[in-house]
């Protein structure tokens, strides 16, 4: 008990150390001028639609990897079920939800392409 109290007191003393003891470097940032430009990390257009397209492409890539891994896992579950009806039904349920997830990914891509085509045809 005494050691716990000693540790608690030490923690409180160290956590309440005055901020004046911190010696941070203080420099003047200066004027960055007009010639400095930020580099676009997306390497494409500056529009919101291109940004959203890149986010969707990233999500679909990650989702495709997850779908493939889940298909392998579902196959493993089918093999290890060994005729057990409850395990087979569990594997079938997992397969169903994996296919639904894959269809959602595909549907998101199709809907995004449709919206983009509609907006471009409207002149936006």
Q: What do you see in this structure?
A:
The chain crosses the membrane at residues 51-74, 95-115. The chain has 124 residues and is an all-alpha fold. Helices cover 69% and strands 0% of the residues. The chain has helices at 2-15, 48-81, 85-121. Helix 2 (48-81) packs antiparallel against helix 3 (85-121). The longest helix is centred in the C-terminal third of the chain and has 37 residues, at 85-121. The N and C termini lie far apart (71 Å). The mean pLDDT is 82.
Short description:
With 124 residues, the protein is mainly alpha-helical.
Features:
124 residues, mainly alpha, 3 helices, flat, transmembrane helix, signal, T4SS_pilin, membrane, transmembrane
Low-confidence blocks of residues: none
H/E series? HHH
Q: How many H/I helical runs?
A: 3
Number of strands: 0
Shape: flat
Roughly how many Å apart are the termini? Answer: 71 Å
Secondary structure class reads: mainly alpha
**Helical fraction:** 55-70%
Instruction: Give a short account of the largest sheet.
Output: none
From the alpha carbons, calculate the radius of gyration and give it in angstroms: 28 Å
Portion in beta strands: under 5%
Mean pLDDT: 82
Instruction: Tell me which oligomeric state these chains represent.
Output: single chain
SSE inventory with pairings:
Layout: H1 2-15, H2 48-81, H3 85-121
Helix pairs in contact: 2-3
Pfam families: T4SS_pilin
Transmembrane segments: 51-74, 95-115
InterPro entries: T4SS_pilin
